[in-house]
Specification:
alpha+beta, 15 strands, EF_Hand_1_Ca_BS, JmjC_dom, 31% helix, nine-stranded antiparallel beta sheet, Jelly Rolls, Myc-induced nuclear antigen with a molecular mass of 53 kDa-like 1, Cupin_8
């Protein structure tokens, strides 16, 4: 793989420094680190200048220019596998990262370029022995409530019966992670760098183009038809749903809908996906769906998404989608539906403006009248906003660019600022579980 020799910090800064990447904390689901592009968003250059000293972990969709230096594992370079390569991600840190015990939806190869990784893997057939966190709907992914630093077998006695596998991965190795396998990963080394390549959950395989003996010839990632790509500047599509599976879902809906899909059907389907379903839960916890009340705001967001899907597939506003057209629906249209149906706000530089409530922003601005730029930025930063976000707000308010915001400037420009904060995130009614795990882990360090 060319990247293994080429991707020094200096080389990446010089050639890819302006590209935007996503950040996570070194402990999964702990917090969103700040970058020079905002909350959870950094330039490649800034990340490379700061990752050794700071708690930040690049967990990002691989920007397209880097794909020219990544080779694809040869076993998936023919037949159905090659046609269903979904996305590629880049993982980089200064080591000492740890994930929760979790699972991912799709098959993946994780190829390590620098450092080492320890993997613990559990077959999904043993899921009924795991304290799986409660989530809305019937997610393909998920995580457990296990404190990976100190497993509590008194609280979770069934866990001692779980068989598991261990793998130590070194630079130059690729690990195959089958769909749905539970896993926990730790990274080591002053520089830990990996690339993962995801491909579809396939139940059938067409060997078209596969050699009768051996493996297909080597190819660069830039040479294969990957479904989800990222140019390095616009919104990422990391974690977006498989459009081929989405088409299967639409076919099933059509079978039960007498050949027509309506707005009401999409609304019902998407709103029902907000519920915690006791019968869908497979784990050791006792689940009471009544404990999880779905906010009205979440229902309204889902209605808006359902309408956006109908506007896309029913551009003539007939009032329904004719299922006879489904066979000809393009992958591009399916990708657009996927992006509408379940977007990840952390994929965009808008995440910060979705994360903070406009009323909090308004109060922060009003309490900072006549303050200097530096004082305002510190105050906004104290509310978990980024310095990049504070800079944008102040420059929008400060019409005459004199470094202070007057009452008149705030009155004239407040709505311009708040407009960017109007959209809302889906409230995660189950998020408290991850926060509790991370707090327990920190208490024991």
């Amino acid at each position: 793989m060319p990247a293994r020799l080429k991707w020094t910090d200096e080389y990446m800064k010089e050639n890819y420094g302006d590209l935007r990447v996503k950040l996570e904390s070194k402990y999964e689901k702990d917090f969103k680190p700040e970058g020079d592009r905002g909350m959870g968003q950094d330039s490649m250059r800034r990340f490379l200048d700061t990752y050794i000293e700071h708690d930040k972990y690049m967990v990002s969709q691989l920007p397209d220019p880097l794909s020219e230096e990544v080779t694809v594992p040869q076993p998936i370079l023919c037949g159905s596998f090659r046609e269903r390569i979904l996305e590629a991600n880049i993982w980089m840190s200064s080591g000492n990262t740890k994930s929760l015990l979790h699972r991912d939806a799709d098959n993946a190869f994780n190829c390590l370029l620098n450092g080492t990784k320890d993997w613990i893997l559990i077959d999904p057939v043993h899921q009924d022995l795991l304290p799986v966190a409660v989530e809305s709907g019937s997610p393909y992914g998920g995580y457990t409530l296990i404190n990976v630093n100190k497993v509590d077998l008194i609280e979770f006695p069934e866990f001692k019966e779980v068989p598991w596998y261990y793998a130590n991965v070194s630079a130059g190795d690729c690990l195959f992670l089958p769909k749905g396998h539970w896993h926990q990963v730790r990274s080591y080394g002053a520089k830990n760098l990996a690339v993962s390549i995801l491909f579809s959950r396939l139940n059938d395989f067409n060997p078209k183009g596969c050699p009768k003996e051996g493996v297909p010839p080597s190819e660069l990632l830039s040479e294969v038809p990957m479904v989800w790509t990222y140019d390095g500047f616009e919104a990422q599509t990391m974690g977006n749903a498989d459009p081929f599976e989405l088409k299967d879902e639409l076919e099933m809906k059509c079978k039960h809908a007498e050949g027509k899909l309506t707005l009401e059907m999409f609304e019902e389907d998407m709103i029902s996906g907000l519920d915690v379903e006791e019968e869908a839960y497979k784990g050791t916890l006792k689940v009471d769906a009544d404990e999880y009340e779905i906010p009205d705001e979440n229902i309204e967001i889902m209605k808006q998404r359902a309408k956006a899907i109908m506007d896309l597939i029913d551009p003539e506003n007939i009032g329904y989608y004719d299922c006879s057209q489904l066979e000809d629906m393009t992958v591009d249209t399916l990708k657009k539906i996927s992006d509408i149906k379940d977007p990840d706000p952390a994929n965009t530089d808008q995440y910060e403006f979705l994360h903070l409530h406009p009323n909090l922003v308004r109060k922060t601005i009003l309490s900072s009248l006549e303050l200097s730029k530096e004082s305002f930025m510190e105050k906004y930063h104290s509310h978990e906003g980024s310095m990049a976000g504070a800079q944008w707000i102040f420059e929008t308010l400060d019409s005459d660019n004199d470094g202070r915001c007057t009452v008149a400037e705030v009155k004239g420009n407040m709505e311009k600022v708040l407009e960017r904060f109007q959209d809302s995130l889906l409230a995660d009614v189950t998020a408290h579980q991850a926060k509790k795990i991370n707090q327990n882990s920190k208490d024991e360090l």
